[in-house]
TrEMBL record:
Taxonomic path: Bacteria, Pseudomonadati, Pseudomonadota, Gammaproteobacteria, Oceanospirillales
Protein name: LysR substrate-binding domain-containing protein
Record keyword DNA-binding present: yes
Family as reported in the entry's similarity comment: Belongs to the LysR transcriptional regulatory family.
Organism this protein belongs to: Marinomonas sargassi
Record-annotated HTH lysR-type domain positions: 11-68
Keyword list, A-Z: DNA-binding, Transcription, Transcription regulation
Amino acid sequence: MSKIHNKRQLPPLGALTAFEAAAKHQSFSRAAEEVNLTHGAISRAVAQLEERIGVELFVRRNRRVYLTMAGRRLLKTVSESLNALSDTVEEIHRHDKNSPFLTVSCEPSLAMRWLMPRLGSFKEQHPELNIDLRMAGGPIDLLSENCDLAIRRNDFGIPDNYSQTFLCSEMAGPVCTDNYWQEQANQALDQAHWLHSRTRPNAWEDWRKQQELMALKPQSEQYFDHFFYALQAAQAGLGIAIGSTPLVSDDLVLNQLAPQTLISPMGMQLTGYDYVLLSLTEPTQDQRIDAFTRWLIVQFEQSNC
């Protein structure tokens, strides 16, 4: 039986690497420079592949080489396979307990308004670790998305095999600048411009139900694509939005009534949701995750969330 039909008889990895370089450049000399081999070594590796497969991969003509149809087909598969192998090795390295990287997925609004301003202090405490921050919200498959941790609002079903670390209970309420509340809304919600977000479209309705104020209506209203944008619009004095902790915690703690500091004129109420840290194993089983978890818990405690 021909070797080509024996799927376990794969060509050596070194020969495939040499072939990919030669195929990309269509030059054995340039391939030799790229992979730090001699011209003869590249030529022998390609010949070994051609003998193993039983077809020509290159046409040699006038000291030049050109890929055959079989060569082009093999190049596509070899490049995809080598890239996948490289990515997998990198992922394994990055998620090893001794890796200097920690990949954290965080809801965009929380990342931009709360987490990112604090990451400098984590780096000061743990200069050996690099946080790879990825912004995403909602359900997450930590394994397939190659994340070590995810910071989430638990408003969706979380798999039973995930470890959950409680961070804080969410609170929400109308937020705006003091100037807007005093001078433009005249301290009345029904005279205010309500700011909505399409990522949390029911925020105002949920708050009104909780406060038994379903008859309350805005003077005008406006929609934004993202919760972060609605909060930024409120901070810019364009209206009043439903804000939540910890996203607006820094503003409420400062309480300096500066032009771009948010206040909560009606107070904040529990929403029934929590912010949690998700991981595939208990944080204590990985020193990187344990360090980040401990630091994160302290940050939430200091934010009075």
